[in-house]
Amino acid sequence: MTKVTLIAGANSLTSRLNGLVEYTQQVLMDHQIQTQVIQVHMLPAESLLTADVSDQRLQAVTDQVLSSDGVIVFTPIYQGSFSGILKTYLDLLPQKALADKVVYALGLGGSKHHLLALQYALEPVLKELGTEELLQSTFATQDQVIKNGSSFIVEDSVKQRIDAQIAQLSRRLGHVEIKEVARWEKIV
């Protein structure tokens, strides 16, 4: 079965970023793709900060990433860049951990002024980790993800962009049947 790991670089479960994580996970399940979520802030802080790659919990989540067919990275945008929590985890991954995987990044920022933070800050790091198939990133602003009690409401325009990229991810993973291509015929 196709597996995709979602890496969330928020600093809490109540972050609006988790609205994007939840919605994306639901779309993946609709495509019948198995998902697993890594909430980086819940990993052992001392092991992350001291780069203790021998920590069993860090090894387990790294093994999840390595055994995945695809990886989706979620980050809040702070000061025009992705989160330090996420960077700390990405630094612990093996050098080519994202090779042979389809990778997609989503960011949530306070305003559209940070629209290019994913392309200029996060994507180069993902490429350095071996990413060859990087889908177009999706950026949303905080007013497009609304907290509603213990759940989130994601604006339709953001949902449409996520849906399009997940459909692309699914096709690239070979999960969706590819339509038969017409063959050339000799016409006499």
UniProtKB/TrEMBL annotation:
Show the GO MF annotations.
oxidoreductase activity
* Keyword hit for Metal-binding: no
Q: InterPro entries annotated for this entry?
A: Flavoprotein-like_sf (IPR029039), FMN_Rdtase-like_dom (IPR005025), NAD(P)H-dep_FMN_reductase (IPR051814)
The record's keywords, sorted A to Z, are: Flavoprotein, FMN, Oxidoreductase
**SUPFAM superfamilies per the UniProt record, alphabetical:** Flavoproteins
| Residues spanning the membrane | none
Residue ranges of domain NADPH-dependent FMN reductase-like in the record: 2-141
PANTHER family listed in its UniProt record:
FMN REDUCTASE (NADPH)
Q: Identify this protein by name.
A: FMN reductase
Organism for this UniProt entry: Aerococcus agrisoli
